[in-house]
């Protein structure tokens, strides 16, 4: 018989702060903010104390910064702790450990899409139980027994597929179909066959792979809308609201964004209102900082997302600079969740800089995807010189005939809606990615 959350918590050598606040029944998304902040502070102190006591790496960083765990007197004191960067983690699989190597039961690796050496993250059984199985966000993630969940995310090396697999099966007691994403066996054709045979109620995948599967379904004369899906979650790469609307139309269901990372786990879950992510505050603290100065920014201002994991004790992640851009907001959401919301603005690495002005590729994508003549595959080709125009390389929608006149018309519409000049290059077909879709290409 499957043991309860409480029984598994008691099996830990030192039950953490979460044991005093959550029963595993999913109060996280409706917990009163004051109680949630009290839990977060207690959890923060415990994680920082363990890092200071058992990690030479963290102890040295805190000593250089002139701070010790006892200096944390309130939750906002987290800003006094030093940052953790991707460069510090590259090629250092054991750097964060506060336990023996023999206690490690799982190692996962970064996708490598931002370049540089790989980043490895280790899990012990303790961290696996706390981080992936508790607490629940049942209002924002309405999954349970009887749901059949097609998991079309990569399983090999990366964290995405396995993390959702564990959450669906162990955390929410639903049925999982480990479809994968473009591996040796997880071809689009095989996945469509599974859809036909097993009729899932939920799909989790990336935005680009949802389109790849839809194209394969069309070849097989299978209408995705016939599944009557309860929900789709899109994760692993960003996309604009207009692109998401195309996905929803094809699959006939609501598609919500889910944001997480290898280093920090789950970070944000979008509700059906589609007005920002709800921060997984039982799992993490989030700050927004100025990318250049590291100064903490107030709600509403866009900066780099910095995360502290509250449920990682054996490999603590404290004030990790994600390289992603976003902004916090404090107003209430119409869905009723009490969790703080934030908006994603994309990766700092992927931001487009043109003629002295930075802007998000999602901004351009939004306007491009509003034009019905444009298909679902495109790239933004950045020129070497600011004197040239940005090129949009794209396919056309089915049945639309290419012409120079159409390319000019599309370019004029884009300039009118964005204020930016573009050259439109219409192509017959762009490569279909099996990894993350690359939307920004630099000449």
From TrEMBL:
<dbReference type="InterPro" id="IPR000873">
    <property type="entry name" value="AMP-dep_synth/lig_dom"/>
</dbReference>
<dbReference type="InterPro" id="IPR042099">
    <property type="entry name" value="ANL_N_sf"/>
</dbReference>
<dbReference type="Pfam" id="PF14535">
    <property type="entry name" value="AMP-binding_C_2"/>
</dbReference>
<protein>
    <submittedName>
        <fullName>Phenylacetate--CoA ligase</fullName>
    </submittedName>
</protein>
<feature type="domain" description="AMP-dependent synthetase/ligase">
    <location>
        <begin position="98"/>
        <end position="307"/>
    </location>
</feature>
<keyword id="KW-0436">Ligase</keyword>
<feature type="domain" description="AMP-dependent ligase C-terminal">
    <location>
        <begin position="361"/>
        <end position="441"/>
    </location>
</feature>
<dbReference type="InterPro" id="IPR028154">
    <property type="entry name" value="AMP-dep_Lig_C"/>
</dbReference>
<dbReference type="GO" id="GO:0016874">
    <property type="term" value="F:ligase activity"/>
</dbReference>
<dbReference type="Pfam" id="PF00501">
    <property type="entry name" value="AMP-binding"/>
</dbReference>
<dbReference type="InterPro" id="IPR045851">
    <property type="entry name" value="AMP-bd_C_sf"/>
</dbReference>
């Amino acid at each position: 018989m499957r043991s309860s959350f409480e029984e598994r918590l008691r099996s830990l050598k030192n039950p953490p702060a979460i044991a005093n606040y959550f029963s595993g029944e999913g109060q996280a998304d409706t917990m009163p903010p004051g109680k949630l902040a009290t839990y977060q502070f207690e959890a923060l102190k415990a994680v920082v104390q363990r890092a200071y006591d058992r990690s030479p790496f963290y102890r040295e960083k805190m000593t250089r910064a002139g701070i010790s765990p006892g200096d944390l007197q309130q939750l906002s004191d987290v800003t006094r702790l030093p940052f953790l960067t991707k460069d510090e983690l590259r090629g250092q699989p054991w750097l964060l450990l506060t336990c023996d190597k023999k206690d490690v039961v799982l190692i996962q690796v970064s996708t490598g899409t931002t370049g540089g050496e790989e980043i490895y993250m280790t899990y012990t059984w303790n961290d696996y139980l706390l981080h992936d199985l508790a607490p629940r966000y049942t209002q924002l993630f309405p999954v349970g027994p009887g749901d059949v969940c097609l998991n079309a995310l990569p399983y090999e090396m990366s964290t995405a597929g396995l993390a959702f697999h564990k959450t669906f099966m162990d955390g929410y007691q639903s049925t999982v179909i480990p479809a994968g994403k473009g591996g040796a066996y997880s071809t689009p054709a095989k996945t469509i066959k599974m859809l036909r045979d097993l009729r899932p109620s939920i799909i989790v995948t990336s935005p680009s792979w949802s389109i790849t599967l839809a194209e394969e379904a069309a070849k097989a004369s299978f209408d995705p809308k016939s599944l009557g899906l309860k929900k789709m979650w899109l994760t692993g790469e960003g996309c604009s609201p207009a692109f998401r609307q195309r996905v929803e139309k094809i699959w006939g269901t609501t598609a919500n964004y889910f944001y997480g990372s290898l280093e920090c786990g789950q970070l944000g879950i979008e509700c059906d209102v589609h007005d920002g992510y709800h921060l997984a505050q039982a799992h993490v603290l989030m700050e927004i900082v100025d990318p250049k100065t590291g100064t903490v920014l107030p709600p509403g201002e866009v900066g780099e997302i910095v995360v502290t994991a509250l449920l990682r004790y054996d490999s603590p992640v404290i004030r990790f600079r994600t390289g992603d851009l976003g902004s916090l907001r404090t107003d209430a959401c119409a869905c009723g969740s009490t969790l703080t919301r934030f908006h994603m603005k994309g990766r700092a690495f992927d931001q487009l800089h043109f003629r002295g002005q930075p802007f998000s590729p999602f901004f351009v994508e939004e306007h491009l995807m509003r034009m019905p003549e444009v298909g679902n595959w495109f790239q933004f080709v950045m020129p070497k010189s600011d004197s040239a125009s940005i090129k949009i390389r794209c396919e056309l929608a089915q049945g639309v005939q290419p012409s120079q006149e159409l390319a000019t018309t599309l370019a004029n519409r884009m300039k009118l809606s964005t204020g930016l000049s573009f050259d439109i290059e219409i192509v017959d077909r762009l490569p279909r990615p099996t990894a993350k879709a690359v939307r920004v290409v630099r000449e």
